[in-house]
Amino acid sequence: MTDATASPPTIPRRRLDAWPLVLVPALALVALPLVGSPTSWVTLTVAGLAMGMMIFVVASGLTLIFGLMDVLNFGHGAFIAVGAYVALSALGPLAPWLASGDPVQTVLALLTAAAVAMVVTGALGLVFERVIVRPVYGNHLKQILITMGGLIVAEQLIRVIWGADQKPMPLPAGLRGGIMLGDVAVEKFRLLAVGVGLAVFAAMTLVLNRTKLGLLIRAGVENGEMVEALGYRIRRLFVGVFVAGSALAGLGGTLWALYRETLTADIGGEVMVLVFIVIIIGGLGSVGGCFIGAILVALTANYVGYLAPKLALVSNIALMVAVLMWRPNGLWPVSKR
Amino acid sequence: MAGPLLSLAGVHTHIGRYHILQGVDLAVEDGGVTVLLGRNGAGKTTTLRTVMGLWKPSAGSVVFAGRPIGGAPTPDIARAGIAYVPESMGIFADLTVEENMVLAARDGPPDAGRLDWIFSVFPALRTFWHHRAGVLSGGQKQMLSIARAVIEPRRLILVDEPTKGIAPAIIESMIRAFLELKATGTTILLVEQNVRFAGAVGDRVAVMDDGRVVHTGSMRELVADAALQARLLGLSLEASH
To answer: CB distance from A237 to chain B under 8 Å?
Structure first.
């Protein structure tokens, strides 16, 4: 970047709006006395963080698609489901590695399956954008209808290809069990999910803030017309972001299926409810908001599910209402022209 | 090069069911500042947006540097050498001033010499270089918008009402910037309602009314001829000084 000597400012320098960051520890601290047992609280918190990271991986691509392309893609769940099924198929030939119990071979097998899932869902995203989404740019009602239709068709195709019955997708032996941290056992898979989520967040933050491509995406979210007037082909950017978002959904689907250890064709739909809540809470187009929102949603679901299971279903809706009453455009809204 | 740098012939533009440009004929000569004057709704902004490809002409031809660009994609038009400063300024509020400039410098990092010139004309941009553009004042945002358009050499710059709602002190900086830019041989097509600003920087003038160009001539002649001003614009340039 170019350097310029900055004189003492007379207007406020760019400052991080830290209040949303405070919400996560505040929620965890409020939950501690309510849960009572510190061991249970740590277990619930780690499980919530892992679930939050999986939701973030799925939601981060969708929030950029919303923000940059102004597309309401209800078909995003199809990529989650396809990603999960493709990973299941890819893991088949890698069974000897998984059965070995060797952590390195286990991780290598999962990385391979996740990579295949991402490539396939990314390619499907390219086709989906061209065939389904492109004709309905600028028309939200048609976007909702046609992408919902795309989701239904995809789910039926999954049943045709992989069968309608529930498929087992057990955790590999190398990821079973936990690691003892004092008196608390933390499941290995949850640590892996947290690691993957943090890696995706770090990579997206790096790309969005430290590269010209990232600048273009952030500028395009704000004012796509001006990006074009500067000489950049935003259509290519749209396609790239759509493909990347679909690939991330495939990665998220792989993680989610391993977390549930079973697979059904409607796996995408059940995650999408949480995903939409997360991107609304975070602010449409905001990756940072999506990250915080995903953690808040997952922690709330876990704490409330433990304390008052009957309220678990409404807890995230209540969280969304509370956040929107505080910040109507989400935690970190993106400026729009 | 023979002929005008930009020429519009019989250009019609529809926005939805509204027929805004109704046969615009306009020639912008290479070098200097051509000012588009006219009352609100005359079609000045639509003319700039049509040239930029942001609205597609429904009929007529737009030729830039000998190449037809009517209806071409906006990025291609920008890459042909046209920069655009919209009335809304179009700055990216969530990006810093620096990031706005880096994006505008399409062909690589901003040139240090050109950046120094921009800072000499608009010192505020140096001061707030690392600040989010959204926190700048209206005048500073306008400076940034113009600076973005000139960070790399462009053959033609389309500027839409740069003085709208801007403090007089900043208008003086803008006059200086436009005069210096003009001296470098850059061609500017300027939509402006502030006749003092238009008179200070303009070489040629085209007056629009009801989606057509109804008068073309030199800015000096228009400034000197109160009767012509009254007939074309319903106001006197002298009166606005």
So the answer is: no
